[in-house]
Specification:
The chain is mainly α and about 250 residues long. The chain has one domain (about 1-245). The protein is built from eleven helices and no strands.
Length: about 250
């Protein structure tokens, strides 16, 4: 059992780093758990239960930007929790095949929004809290259900709401991702759909990766970081399109 646990730890540490900077870490951990002979459902729920440590420590790593991010965190907390609950319940009671089909469309949409976020923010920001509420609710619903690429989607939404500084956006994203993952994890634990041996090991990996990467990201040129995140989003979308339709 040492090798499977080592693989799960290594994958979660790498994924925690990706999630802290942009998102998409589940793309690594979810298939890793499946390769370790866990079912799709258990792989998904176990991954979600482990995710919250990476999001929390990633948010702590961006604590220097918390003051500027606090307003957006406050107005988006309620839809994040509601969406996380609905998404987790959907996973428990509905087939995952439906969401697997729309995953590439969601990620592609988020990447496009992230690319043109600064241009469209002057239009979307006029809709204020109502617009932010529904965008975050559906993003959180998706995150509670599956979550692969949720960070990309959330960064796109946040950019469209008028946050152009990537580090402030990451602070908001990591804090909200922590809330979404935590509430979904509680539901999955209640329903007993979790492999705790893997979840505990991956919590440590996600935490280490999330904290270290959040610190490293702040030393990277912001334009280069934004470009890297955008490229990763399109690559992630292409991957899922090929996986679902080819």
């Amino acid at each position: 059992m040492i090798i499977p646990y080592t693989l799960a730890f290594g994958a979660s540490m790498m994924a925690g780093g990706m999630n802290a900077i942009a998102g998409g870490g589940t793309l690594i951990t979810f298939p890793t758990l499946i390769s370790l002979w866990l079912s799709h459902l258990i792989s998904n729920t176990t991954n979600t239960v482990a995710l919250w440590t990476g999001s929390l420590l990633g948010a702590i790593g961006y604590r220097a930007f918390i003051k500027d991010a606090l307003y957006f965190i406050k107005i988006l907390t309620t839809p994040s929790l509601l969406g996380g609950i609905v998404g987790a319940m959907l996973l428990i009671y509905t087939p995952e095949s439906f969401f697997n089909i729309i995953v590439p469309f969601l990620i592609l949409f988020a990447s496009v929004v992230f690319t043109f976020g600064s241009r469209i923010s002057k239009y979307t920001s006029r809709l204020g809290y109502i617009n932010a509420f529904f965008i975050q609710f559906f993003t959180s619903l998706y995150g509670g259900y599956f979550g692969a690429g949720m960070g990309i989607i959330m960064l796109g939404s946040i950019s469209a709401l008028g946050i152009e500084d990537i580090h402030i956006a990451n602070t908001v994203k990591n804090t909200l991702a922590f809330l979404i993952n935590l509430i979904a994890a509680v539901i999955f634990i209640i329903y007993g759909e979790v492999r705790f041996d893997y979840a505990i090991i991956m919590m440590v990996g996600f935490g280490i990766g999330g904290f270290l990467s959040s610190l490293i990201a702040q030393r990277i040129n912001r334009k280069h970081l934004r470009l890297g995140i955008n490229i990763f989003g399109y690559v992630l979308a292409i991957y899922y399109f090929k996986k679902v339709f080819l």
